[in-house]
Design brief:
Largest sheet: 6 strands, antiparallel
Radius of gyration: 20 Å
Shape: globular
Structural class: alpha+beta
Order of helices and strands: HEEEEHHHHEHHEEEEEEEEEEEE
Number of domains: 1
Strand order of the largest sheet: 4-15-10-17-8-5
Distance between the termini: 25 Å
Helix content: 10-25%
Length: about 350
């Protein structure tokens, strides 16, 4: 039976999952230290930062040697996975259309706030992207009174993934506003930056909040700055959904280098023919593909899903933002990671 939404849900309910993520990141950091950093090969026209995975394109615009560009699967050519009947939620209403992955540019979203200059700086200036990440943490992080000062410093550190609520800021988003003013984007303030991005997340109609910003009625109000230890990890895919609800997830990518065009910034995704059935009664919870009964035993539920259905989205100028409906996809960290971090709004 189709379930369009869960009942009451906390807006920020991923603390336990985030703690597990932090543990994994720490273990990966230790592993990378022993394995050593991958080599950088000077191609004569810039640095070729390609990893060994054969499904990754990693290039720097204006510098890349096109003979080294590898074939990858983009949004345009990944086929929809025909979800086996046993894990389907059921037939959705005929008038309900899937919201598959789409991309937006910063210049487009912030066209009324000097978006062209914002996009240019975001694309070309490592310091600008770094300053945005630092300012967001200063504006949105609230120390946990049950944790020690040392733990709170660790949680706030740029090297750690951070989970915050984006709807309200103890500082009034002052640090982000200061960064935009410092870089000459005077008509963009921190509240507008965060709430325009967050306002696209969630489900239902958009309504104005107390500050006049359009936000979706059904939303978690959560933002995670997802940080991955190391520059070129190749984790096995772990296909999942964050809530299995018809709500939009918004990602803003922070590439590892300026002028970057390629994969490894955004999550990989698989477009579904049907929404998946819940694994927890009532819905609104994480769904893990490999936890469905029969995975790895039923030929229709393989441990490793076919390459043809894996969407490995490109990041680039004009595609800094990725949006998708959580109920129509399963997603995973990239199998080749090339980013400083990625923000995920829900």
């Amino acid at each position: 039976m189709w379930k369009g939404s869960a009942s009451k849900r906390p807006k920020c309910h991923y603390q336990k999952r985030l703690f597990r993520m932090l543990v994994v990141f720490l273990l990966k950091s230790i592993s990378c230290a022993f394995q050593g950093m991958p080599s950088l090969v000077n191609s004569g026209r810039g640095i070729d930062r390609r990893g060994p995975h054969t499904h990754v394109t990693s290039s720097i615009r204006g510098q890349a040697d096109t003979s080294n560009v590898l074939v990858t699967s983009y949004a345009e050519d990944a086929v929809i996975w025909d979800v086996p009947v046993g894990i389907q939620r059921g037939e959705p209403p005929s008038d309900l259309k899937p919201n598959y992955v789409t991309f937006l540019g910063l210049a487009e979203v912030f066209q009324d706030q000097d978006g062209i200059k914002l996009a240019d700086l975001f694309d070309t200036d490592d310091g600008f992207r770094h300053a945005i990440r630092v300012a967001m943490r200063e504006d949105l992080f609230i120390p946990d009174p049950t944790r020690s000062e040392k733990v709170n410093r660790f949680l706030k550190d740029l090297g750690s993934s951070l989970h915050v609520c984006w709807e309200k800021s103890p500082t009034g988003y002052a640090n982000l506003s200061r960064v935009f003013k410092q870089y000459g984007i005077g008509n963009l303030d921190g509240a507008t930056f965060i709430k325009k991005l967050g306002g696209m997340a969630g489900g239902g109609p958009q309504i104005k909040d107390s500050d006049g910003f359009l936000l979706r009625q059904k939303r978690f109000g959560s933002l995670i700055d997802i940080v991955t230890a190391g520059s070129r990890l190749k984790p096995a895919h772990s296909w999942h959904q964050d809530c299995n609800l018809p709500q939009m997830t918004v990602m803003l990518g922070f590439p590892k280098t300026s002028g970057y065009l390629g994969t490894g910034v955004f999550s990989h995704a698989i477009k579904l023919s049907h929404p998946l059935k819940d694994q927890v009664p009532g819905g609104g919870q994480v769904v893990q593909y490999d936890e469905y009964e029969g995975v790895g035993k039923d030929p229709k539920l393989p441990n490793i899903l076919p390459e043809s259905v894996i969407l490995r989205p490109r990041y680039g100028k004009g595609r800094e933002i990725m949006i998708y409906d959580d109920s129509w996809h399963i997603h995973s960290a990239p199998d080749h990671i090339y980013r400083t971090s990625v923000w995920r709004f829900m």
